[in-house]
Structure prediction request, 192 residues.
Amino acid sequence: MLKPIKFLKHFLISPNTTGALTPSSEGLSHLITDTAELANTSMVIEFGTGTGVFTEKILQKISDKTQFFALEINSEFAEQTRQKCPKALVYEDSAVNARTYLEAAGFQACDRIICGLPWASFDEGLQNALLQTTKDVLKPGGKLLTFAYVSSLLLPAGIRFRKKLYATFPKVSTTRTIWMNIPPAFVYCAEK
Ligand SMILES: C[S@@+](CC[C@H](N)C(=O)[O-])C[C@H]1O[C@@H](n2cnc3c(N)ncnc32)[C@H](O)[C@@H]1O
Prediction:
């Protein structure tokens, strides 16, 4: 029970950055990482690990040859992810700075971004900056996987994010909804 309570604490302290009351479910964690088709990738990045629920699945699904790192802005969440997934390289920084860490790892671009950022809590400037970074660091044909709560489609910032996503990437698709997630959520798959 400690982890959900900690998560709630971070939501109460910083609702727009945390963007959720509780970590994503097993069902959503499997859906986002399966939709990413992680086999045969060279470089995978995760944005916004929270407690590491997606990180754990990513590490199970990438091959030994795939390089992986994550960016988490909240120091407690970054540390929780390191404890849950000792093999994960987790930097405490904003996803906006992804290129710096990518180049430090010797790469110019990545195959996949698995993203847990709360887009519908972000203002337009931050949505623009993060979408710009995402497009910049993905290879041609590379994919962004990110989730949205069904309820966010009623929020102005959620609607704005959806429009920007479709305007930024030539191909965008959505998955089925995980109704057992709290709240129910689906995954966007955007291909550069
Ligand atoms: C909705 S939670 C999702 C956490 C986890 N992926 C999950 O699904 O349970 C969003 C996470 O993104 C992190 N975050 C918010 N803004 C960020 C940014 N600019 N760069 C990196 N992480 C960020 C928050 O601290 C939080 O851990």
Observations:
- The helical segments are 2-13, 15-18, 26-35, 53-61, 75-84, 98-104, 124-137, 156-168.
- DSSP finds eight helices and seven strands in the chain.
- The domain at 24-191 is CATH 3.40.50.150 (Rossmann fold).
- The radius of gyration is 15 Å.
